[in-house]
Amino acid sequence: MPWLLILILTFTGCATTQYKKVVSPSQDLYFDANDVFENEDYVLAIELYEEFLEKAPTSSLAVPAKINLGLAYYNENDCEGTMNTLKGTKIQDTNIKAIIDNILNECNGVIAKTEPSEAKGEGEEIAIVVEDAYIDDYGSIVLYGHVDKPATLYIEGAKIPVNEHNIFTATVPWRKGRDLEIIAKDELGNEGAIDFYADSEEPEEPENLRIIRATADSIEFEWDANEEPDLKGYLLFFRRKGGSLQEIQEIITDLRYEIVGLQRFISGSNKTFELYLRAVDKMNNYSEDSDILEITLP
Questions:
Q1: Where in the chain is the domain with CATH 1.25.40.10?
Q2: Domain covering 210-296, topology
C-alpha cells in the first residue's frame, strides 16, 4: 500500500526536512534514512533508522523514526519486524494512529496465518479474521468474524462460541484505546492469536447543510454524505435562537431530515432556529460539529 507509506512520511520525516541544515549528526542520520525510504530502498532505510534509534533513543525524532522503521519492515513484507517496532508506540496524531492500527491488525492476521504460537498436534496454525466491529447501545464492542478451521475461541480469556461454519459473534466490555487479545485453539493443540485494535479516527464533520423547505411548524433540510466506510450515521441538534439546545434521540441514516412540531419552541416573535449535525461511526467516534444552519420560519 504505497499511499499509506507516503502519507506517514508526510506527517513525520518529510515534514521536518526543512530543518536539515541545523541538525546534529544523529539527526542528519534520520534525514538520510528518510531519503532512502522515499527512494524505496527499504532494506537500507531499516539499517539507518535502527542506527539512528540506537544513537538517539530519546530524540524528538525517535517516534517518527520508529513509525518509518515499522513501515519499512511492512513494505518488505516483514510483519514480525513491523509488529516489534510499532506495537506500543505512542502516537498522538489520530489520523496516523488509525493507519498504524490498521497495519497492526493486518500483520496480526498474517502472523496468525503463517506463524502459530508453538503449534502442536499436526502443526497447523489457526487464522483468525475479524470482519466487522461496532459499539452497541450499552457501550460494549461487538466483533464478527471467523476462524479457518474448527476451534475454540477466547477473547481476553473468555470463551466465545464458534458455530459449525467457524463463524463467531462476540460482545465484550469495551474501553476506548484498549486492544483485545483473541486466541483460537483446536483439539490437537494448534493455536492462532491476534491483538485487535479498534479504529479511533474521528469522522469528518458533515458538510453543505441546506434547506429544502420551511413551514410555520417544520424545517426540512439535507446535506452531503460522509465518505467513511464505517459510518453509523448522524446526530442532529437544534434550538430556537437563544433557546435551549435540543437533540433528536435517534441516529439518522438518511441524508435528509424534517423537524416537525416547532411551534412549541416559539416564544413571541422569535421564529429563527439554528441546527447542526455530528457524524458518528461504528466505534462511536464523533466528528466535530458541522457549520450551523440558520432558518427563520415563515
A1: 2-90
A2: Immunoglobulin-like (2.60.40)
Q: Are 159 and 144 in contact (CB under 8 A)?
A: no
What is the three-class DSSP state of 162? coil
* CATH number given to 2-90: 1.25.40.10
| Sheet containing 158-160: order of strands | 158-160, 152-155, 179-185, 191-197
* pLDDT tens digits for range 196-234: 887 788 999 999 999 999 999 999 999 999 998 889 999
Give DSSP secondary structure letters for 32-98: HHHHHHHTT-HHHHHHHHHHHHHH-TTSTTHHHHHHHHHHHHHHTT-HHHHHHHHTT-----HHHHH
Q: What is the pTM of this model?
A: 0.53
Residue 240 identity: R
One-letter amino acid at 272 equals T
Asked if 147 contacts 138 with a C-beta cutoff of 8 angstroms, the reply is: no
Cell 455530528 -> residue:
278
Alpha carbons 277 and 293: distance in angstroms, whole number: 9
Longest dimension (CA), the chain: 80
